[in-house]
Amino acid sequence: MSPAIKPNYHQTSLDEVRDRVRVDEEGHVYVVPDETGGEEGYVGQFSAGDAEAALQYFVRKFDDLYNRALLLRARVATQADSSGSLRSSHSSLQKELAVGTWVGDTEGLARVLDEISTSIDGVSAEEKKQNEQAVAAKIAEREEIVRAAEELAAADSAAQHWKSAQEQMNALFEQWKSQQRTPPRLSKSQEDPLWKRFREARSTFERSRKAFFVRRDKEAAEIKKAKEELIVEAEKLQGSTEFGPTTKAYHRLMDRWKALGRGPRKTEDAQWARFRAAQDVFFSARDQANAKIDAEYAENLKKKEDILGKLRELMPFTKPQAVRDRYLKLLDEFENAGKVPRADIKRVERAINEVQDAFREAEGATRSPRESARNERQSDMISQLEDTISELEHQRAEAESAGDGKRVSEAEEALAARRSWLQMLTSS
After folding, report:
1. Which of 157, 205, 303, 375 suits a disulfide with 337, CB 3.0-4.6 Å?
2. Given strand 21-23, what is the order of strands in its sheet?
3. CB-based contacts of 310: which residues, under 8 Å, 6+ apart?
4. What span, in angstroms and rounded, lies between the C-alpha atoms of 100 and 201?
């Protein structure tokens, strides 16, 4: 204990009390009244010695009580205990002083106890202020817990990350319980409104969580059922040799599959594997058929490239009339050479168009203005027909690749008509 708050030691001198105390032959000690009058007060008996020893004994008892009061005053000054504990110690000393008859300065001790009582009141007021601040801080902490819980409960269930949110809500509940266990404790009127909000937030959160998973399970079951139906359709089509219509059918099935969304990962992966396996069977067969067709068309490509080489040998067409018959014959051979692989269609068409454009340009340069005008119109018609024929050949190739017999037939009919017109125009 520091010197500033070290209690003073009280010691009563026997000379101070000798005139106010009487000791009889049997060791009984009395406090005699002062000049104001009154009755003697019986202190007690001390039979283990003479009158002086008896006086010393009862003075020591009073000094002990006084010094305990001084020690309490030092404890109050340092706020070593709660105001309640200090008040209890003060009451005990005050009661002890009041019920006994003492040999010493009882009035001085009473004043010391009054000072102590006033100081304890100050300690109590400070404690109250600190407790109010602590309670306010505790309420603020509880408010923050409630706010966080209400925020979780109000979140959009479709966007909520439920596993993380559940962990956060559990952590908030643990914080709430920890707050309840640590001082200061809130009163019922302070805690009940906050608990009601927190409990409602947890209940709302739990209802939303359960509803979400019920809804998700229902949706997952619906997706699973719908995808099972798509798998059945895909498996029925996997052996089809109508490559065009079936390719389109598979594309439609894929669009429907994507539109359904994803189900639970384990179920989704298993269903996708079955769906994809059915597609693979069909598309593998289609690719093999296309490869076979392309291999057959490779010979036609070789013939057409040989014919293109012979046509280029006639260039430049400085005397188009001199090579006209040879040119037309080679064109007929080119048309009759057959189809080429899809990857080479545009390249071959571009090459033959370049040759035909060069020949028409050369013919136009050797004719009279009237004849040139007539042939220019004819040339435009020929050019349009050739473009149309090129486009129809491309459409036919696509139809053949897709296995669409109807489209192939329509394209061939249109091609036959356009080639007939072209033949008439180029022969005139």
Report:
1. 303
2. 21-23, 28-31, 41-45
3. 330
4. 63
pLDDT tens per residue across span 49-91: 888 999 999 999 999 999 999 999 999 999 889 999 999 999 9
Q: Residue 42 is inside which H or E element, if any?
A: strand 41-45
Q: In which element (H, E) is residue 159 found?
A: none
How confident is the model at residue 377, as a pLDDT? 62
User: Taking the alpha carbons of 214, 218, 224, 227 in that order, is the dihedral positive or negative?
Assistant: negative
Could you tell me which of 92, 154, 146 has the C-alpha nearest to residue 117? Answer: 92
Q: Distance between CA atoms of 348 and 304, rounded to whole angstroms?
A: 8
CB 65 within 8 A of CB 97: yes
Angle (deg, nearest 10), helices 188-237 and 162-181: 160
pTM: 0.50
What does the pLDDT look like over 102-121, one tens digit per residue? 999 999 999 999 999 999 99
* DSSP SS3 for 305: helix
Nearest to 248 by CA among 391, 106, 364, 401: 401
Cβ atoms of residues 67 and 12 within 8 Å: no
220: left (phi over 0), alpha (psi -120 to 50) or beta: alpha
